[in-house]
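agent> fetching stored inputs for the NAP docking request
agent> found them:
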Amino acid sequence: MVSRIIPVDPFDLVIFGGTGDLARRKILPALFRRFCAGQFPEGARIIGAARTDMSLAEYHAMVAVALSEHAEGRECAPGTVAEFLNRVMYVATDAMGEQGWSALSDLLKPTASERQSVFYFSVGPRLFGALAERLHLHGLAHEHTRIVVEKPFGHDLESAKALNAVLAEHFDESQVYRIDHYLGKETVQNLMAVRFGNMLFEPLWNSQYVDHIQITVAESVGITGREEYYDRAGAMRDMVQNHLMQLLCLIAMEPPAKFDPDAVRDEKLKVIRALDPVLPHHIVRGQFEACLDPGDPHPSYRGSVGNPRSTTESYIALRTHISNWRWAGTPFYLRTGKRLKARSSVINVMFKDAPHSIFGEEAGRHANLLSIRLQPNEGITLKVTIKEPGPGGMRLVDVPLDMTFAEALGPDGEDPPGAYERLIVDVIRGNQTLFMRGDEVEAAWGWTDPIIAGWNSRGDVPKPYASGSPGPTDADLLMRRDGREWRGINP
Ligand code: NAP
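agent> prediction call returned; pasting tokens
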């Protein structure tokens, strides 16, 4: 099975923050990989923009280093980097001042009616509003303009509303692409294909057959390079409000009438609006401790962020419910954290036990489990029960039916595009299905804000947990009280 490359229309893509970490590690390598795949039309241009004054040669040298360090995974013909760099330009531009804007206008305006202009806001969130204003002032906000807005989208409901309002002054909602790279992952889209492309699962996808659902996004890394931001945000704002919420929506939503941006986003919004408030005893906050292992020493959370009194959480586990016909009675358990045992993002759909075992209790009882792995090793596994092979009576064992995408694509299969590749191409094509709509973001903040306000009013302090562990022991108790267990965090 060979993936088809469908060329896109001519475009100019301006990366505000074109010298930053995200541009170097993700955006430019993603564009390069699409270029190698032959997806760039003739004349497509990439324009790096940041305040730093540098020549085109200096910018090209920076981009070449970024590609050599981060554009792994695709074989490119010799000379392709040079060809790619021919498409890359740089304009020193200040989002808060006049520097660079007339040069940017001169570059973009002559072709504005013939091609798509995409402005990627890969800068700190305090600049999002200013960039929108300046694009408007300089005549760069027009019908062929799309803007990509990075996370975090707001700090709470009020700030998210204010940001939505500023963007709405100059752009229609159809021009705004709020990016959550989790939604660009192959498995996330496969989750929709599995749910809505097969007859098999949908009849079982409800509280009658599903005991509970676990969503885990575990990271083994700590907080590096984002200390100030993270200590203000914490795991709730950094991960739960966006990534985990989006995964929850996709797993729980009703079938949309069609795979169309607003049909999908309408259904996701209904899930968020149906979420119950989280009770204080259904949530555990944690903070990682220092690691004294001489082979891998690192400071505690408080040491990492340089704030010895910090009460910001680097870990969250919570139980929530969706109050609708499909899910009433099925708990959803969400957890995420830094410096955990392994890097592992997985959704586990735990089905109920069979109502009666005809084989007797000694044969063992086994519930089905559908595991959707987002990283690493994207893939889907269904655990089914069979007879243990060999003589000795009827004993039951679990076996995995495994769908690892690399295998499913076969030996001729291309590497599936990474999340940023897919999402950037979707922006150029004008497909918003995998991007968050303004009302979705606001609804997600509307659910998270009271939880955070509760901690603040109670003076809640996170529980310590050992670096390299699965998280605080209280998170295990959260499950055990319900007679359940977390699945292991495995790489
Ligand atoms: P960064 O490394 O600090 O880069 C910031 C970029 O913004 C630099 O290119 C900087 O260049 C430019 N910049 C700063 N002030 C500017 C101004 N007034 N006008 C124009 N450009 C300006 O940040 P980052 O890690 O790339 O993150 C960028 C955005 O992506 C943030 O919103 C962040 O939350 C989000 N994000 C990042 C990651 C990640 O892995 N890095 C992941 C998810 C989301 P000059 O100093 O030369 O102007």
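agent> quick read of the result: The domain at 183-421+437-480 is CATH 3.30.360.10 (Dihydrodipicolinate Reductase; domain 2).
agent> awaiting further instructions
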